[in-house]
Amino acid sequence: MEKFKSGFVAIIGRTNVGKSTLINKLVGEKVAITVNKSQTTRTAIRAIVNRENSQIIFIDTPGVHKPKTKLGETMVETAYEIAEDVDLILFIVDSSKKEITKGDRIILEKIKKMNKKTILVLNKIDLIKKEDILKAIDLYKEEYNFEEIIPISALNSKSINTILDEIEKRLKPGPAYYDIDEYTDQTSRQLVEEVIREKALKFLSEEVPHGIYIEVEKMNLRKTTKGEEIYDVDAIIYCLRNSHKGIIIGRNGTMLKRIVSSARMELEKMLGTKLNLKVWVKVKEDWQDKDNIVKKFKFN
Questions:
Q1: Quick check: 4 pLDDT over 60?
Q2: How many C-beta atoms lie closer than 10 Å to residue 137's C-beta?
Q3: Exposed, middle or buried by CB within 10 Å (0-12, 13-18, 19+), for 282?
Q4: How many CB atoms lie within 10 A of CB 123?
Q5: In the prediction, which pLDDT does 96 show?
Q6: CA–CA distance from 282 to each of 7, 245, 295 (Å)?
Q7: For residues 237 and 198, is the Cβ–Cβ distance under 8 A?
Q8: Are 56 and 183 in contact (CB under 8 A)?
Q9: Which sequence spans correspond to the domains of the chain?
Q10: What is the CATH number of domain 5-173?
């Protein structure tokens, strides 16, 4: 019988290359928020894939970008710290770019220094011609001795088993670190915070979302008079300015209602329980540079 294998795999790449979409496809469950805006993932999320002969623990890292705040610096540091400490790296690039971008080049240089086993994933091949896929493969082949180069479209499930097979081949024999019915190590509170933030990112204008963070102040599970389980959740959306607060709440509270309603519907599906969700909006200027808040986003 084949020996059971396990290992940790860091998913690394620039912002907006499709890391979170891919991780959700690999796991078959929603573990990372996906919005068509950059710097969506702030913390490192562990996602677990249980296969017949292996357990693969993916760590979805924050997108690598040029930081402008302490929060940004923490996100980039986190991505590299994780990459140093895993069995394998999954490096994702946007194949529709004709050349290796400055951001990809920086990541590539880090990988070379670490000399880590790395599988390159060329994402968004649905946006380019076949001959350009081959050019992209040749371009990266010259740069580093990748374990494998896999062209994919993260919106399409076809390549998922290929990626998982290639990873499994390269793992060492080891134990299952998590129960086989687990697919993430996020707590219910973290899940609530992330889903509220996803809905805010989805509905709000471009300048507001990156200046918000969500904090769940209370999350209690109780039984209703009919004996049904329900979560009572109090959460706060913190933003940087009063003008942002007005946008988040919206005229007569319409925007906040929209965010809360959408988050509640999704969370009830994810948690399998009714949710009584109350959300307030408060201003906390310069929170992105405050150590006591930024440390929440460090990887443990």
A1: yes
A2: 16
A3: exposed
A4: 24
A5: 84
A6: 41, 7, 20
A7: no
A8: no
A9: 5-173, 188-297
A10: 3.40.50.300
Contact 1/51 with Cβ under 8 angstroms?
no
Per-state percent for the chain, helix, strand, coil, to nearest 5: 40, 25, 35
- The answer to whether the 5-173 and 188-297 domains have the same CATH topology is no
pLDDT at 141 (0 to 100)? 92
Burial of 220 (0-12, 13-18, 19+ CB in 10 A): exposed
Give, in degrees to the nearest 5, the angle at Cα 269 between 268 and 272: 70
Average pLDDT on 191-205 reads 83
- Separation of alpha carbons 111 and 211, rounded Å: 30
The amino acid that residue 256 corresponds to is: L
Structure token digits, residue 253 = 């509270």
Instruction: State the angle between helix axes of 160-169 and 19-27 in degrees (0 to 180), rounded to the nearest 10.
Output: 80
Q: Looking at the chain, how many residues does it have?
A: 300
Secondary structure class of 113 (helix, strand, coil)? helix
Residue-wise pLDDT for 241-258, tens only, equals 888 888 889 899 999 999
Q: Which DSSP state fits 76?
A: H
Which CATH superfamily hosts domain 188-297? K homology (KH) domain (3.30.300.20)
199-227 residue pLDDT tens: 888 888 665 656 778 888 888 888 888 88
CA 89 to the chain's CA centroid:
15
d(CA 248, CA 241): 11
pLDDT tens by residue, 38-51? 333 334 557 788 88
